[in-house]
Design goal:
20 helices, five-stranded parallel β-sheet, Rossmann fold, 4 domains, binds adenosine-5'-triphosphate, Helicase, Ruva Protein, domain 3, binds magnesium ion
Length: 470
Amino acid sequence: MSMEGFRILVVDDESSQREILQGFLEKAGWEVETAGSGPEALDLLRQRSFALCLIDYRMPGMSGLELLQQIRQRYPDVTVVIITAYGSIDSAVEAMKRGAYDYLTKPIDLDELSHLITKIEERQQLLTEVRTLRAQLTERFRFDQIIGESGKMQEVLSLVARIAPSNATVLIRGESGTGKELIAKAIHYNSPRKEGPFVKVNIAALPENLLESELFGHEKGAFTGAVERRIGRFEAANHGTLFLDEIGDLPLPLQVKLLRVLQEREFERVGSNRPIKVDIRIIAATNQDLEEAIREKRFREDLYYRLNVVPIVLPPLRERREDIPPLVDFLLRKCAEQTGKGVKGISREAMDLLIRYDYPGNVRELENIIERAVLLARHDVILVEDLPLHLRTSEPEIERRPRSEKMTLPQVLEALERQMILRALEQHDYVQTRAAEELGISERVLRYKLKKHGLTVRSAEGEQQGGERP
Ligand SMILES: Nc1ncnc2c1ncn2[C@@H]1O[C@H](COP(=O)(O)OP(=O)(O)OP(=O)(O)O)[C@@H](O)[C@H]1O
Ligand SMILES: [Mg+2]
């Protein structure tokens, strides 16, 4: 099958030779034009593109060799094959030296010719492919501080690049720790609003009774405790981006208010009926199943459609394991810089374990694992022993013990309990409330069990809860 745009130019001073070649090549399905001399050939080359030139070596006026030279200089992409008289090896060698791709001797073996052209066609196809691939490679989407080599992340990043300049409302979804906030910031800092504020509201972290005034502000005396007039996050985000994190937790009455802001870009402070206009872009994020929330009437469908103008779904880390090695490198460098510890790399075995692990807490969990490993590392390379226990084996500790080492039922239960607690803590960033929730026990019971197992846990207190203040 012949390639699109693969055009051949036959250059020979003898018309009979031109006709034979043209007839044969056209019959074989190629597009052919002919020229009776070097200058005529150059004329045609100026007018349209050819993939291949078949040039007679001996021609009056401009010789085949001279024409070859001209073509090499002006049209380096054109492949040239020289046709020489039988037995004139010297001229063939000379032509090859000057950049001919190959040579054929007269009388031309037509089978050989068609074989050669097919080969050239394939080679050109390959070159074009390599070129487009290379172009795609340099066009990869890069954002500062975001690692995403996998196809899935490249899709996300190309979408981010395309929508960032607009004002479109974005809904980012993905499991915990997949990078929702990171993407929200990338959108803001790659938009025309980048000089304006990026204001984050963590809806889940704010008490319901304060949420409305936090979002919309209040007038002095609007309610008990409102001693001063206060500007809400919507106003603070004017000319910038408002990031509504955990949007699934927004109480229904506030959903109505938000819907109105989205429609009219206008709202009132609590305790006032003077409408305030704002110029903001809204990005919302959640790891909840909003469709289910809609079915259960916990989330308004109309609000969902207003928010979901540009949906961005972040894939869990276990579905893009190619990203793990570059993430490990990135996080290692970041941690080493922050801690000042000279950790330079990671052993192969440790990397293998990291690649195989499933990361229920996604990139944040990997980040925690690396931070911990950098702190523990006794060498300049991270070893398997620096990784958390639950990574080192997929089976619980009890199953790894040699059979000879019999355990009693209480011992087995004890080991299993310890294992599950450690795992829940690591997955939840050592936030005990969340770990307890995952384990289905109260925080008090968790604290008791930690003590019993002799586990000390770094405190997550002091973690900023309300998000960045404007
Ligand atoms: N692709 C990535 N490249 C580099 N770092 C990343 C990437 N994705 C996430 N991180 C890092 O992982 C951590 C968690 O990311 P982020 O806070 O954006 O996640 P999230 O989806 O908002 O999580 P949550 O649902 O728990 O709020 C951050 O420190 C972030 O910088
Ligand atoms: Mg987040």
